[in-house]
Amino acid sequence: MLKTLYKGFILSYLLITISCTTNQNSSDLIQAIDNRQTDKALRIIDQLDNLNEQDSLGLSPMHWAAKRALPQITKALIKKGCNLNITDVHGYTPLNYAIKADNAEIINLMLKNQAVVYKNGLSNLSDGPFVDWTEKGLYAYYLKHDSISSKSFLLGKFINQNTRYFKGWNGDTTTYTITDNKIPAWEFKTQEPIFVLGDIHGQYDRMVKNLQAHGVIDKHLKWSWGKGHLVFVGDIFDRGNKVTEALWLIYKLEQEADKTGGKVHMSFGNHELMVLNKDNRYIANDYKNLCNNLGLEYNTLFHSNSVLGEWLRSKNSMTKINDILFVHGGISQKQIDSGMSTQEINELVRQYLISGSSPKNQDKLNQILKSFGPFWYRGYFMDRSQYKKITEQELISILEALKVSRVVVGHTENDELSALYNGKVIDVNIPLAEDSIPNQALLIKYGKFFRLTEDGNKTLLN
């Protein structure tokens, strides 16, 4: 009898002790996180079942882990099933606190585990897919804001690493095939037609209409240019709100063209360099709103281990087809005087976008990346504070040094695709954001140069 009573006493004592310890540890957990005592917090997390208790301000342990920027504790809380979208007394989720703490690791961790933030007053927004190479495989995701629920969030999933093939979701019906990346050649000889487009700047719909109007792609957006060449002279990025769609289409057409003996060439423009170097000043407002809501920097969507980011960083700064050089801005005499070859510039810029500059290449990169360089130069069209407009004789000297007869450029806008300096320079940059200006493209065929318009007009250039 006494033994039974003693056992009952011990059991009751243990239950009371466990109950008290649980209540105490809930407060202790928040205190440990607040004091950044990681080991103590992790021990308490292992012991607790309810990890969603909130303090007087409505802050849960997950809020505190985000506030104190503690990724190890955040991971442990997520693993135990802690509510990522619990709100405090002001309506803020843990992700809001992670964004304010500016901790990219926690932000990405939360987003990939269905965290949301609430934002009123925005229309429906969506962008993607973005695809990352990760240790666990290929991870694809969209950024989204739903105006009805006022939520911004990420929709992501892993895709089949073996097939590298997936169908879009989130209202996206496109099929995507991921291929191994390779550095393209920069010199080509061909008798096939060459179709050239200027700066796209996110104007995907007008780009598609132009390609379809002239038979480069069909109504299903498939390559129909045979063995022909398609050239983009840079600036796919910025200003417009369909940059991602444009990049994926070029990525796909590149694969399809290779299968038929054709080629797609995409050179860097100054806006590619800006975005890949964390300069997000000119991105469209939709992108700014989505990224700001989710605590993301737009350029990080194209990091070097993302599919599009790796692909972009493989591209050339200049491409030569037959005796024509395709470059975004132009080649100045100062660039020629630097003694750098086209191939060296292509290699230096690629390396710069992967690893940055070093004392060994800093001087050369300064020459390439500034106003006299191939991405920013406007000397074929106007005086600038750094230089005067070039003369035809000076241009002839540059072309001779490059061993080409013509240069095709974008960068500087013109309402009409035109040839200058007796056909030695052709400017293909038509401002696509201006609907009143007709779509135009350059066709090079049988050694002749034509301005094409969407309505079917074909004009021989000088």
TrEMBL record:
Keyword entries, A-Z: ANK repeat
One Pfam family hit: Ank_2
Annotated GO MF terms: hydrolase activity
Record-annotated Calcineurin-like phosphoesterase domain positions: 193-412
Keyword Transmembrane found: no
Residue windows of the ANK repeats: 57-89, 90-115
Protein name, as recorded: Calcineurin-like phosphoesterase domain-containing protein
Species: Ancylomarina salipaludis
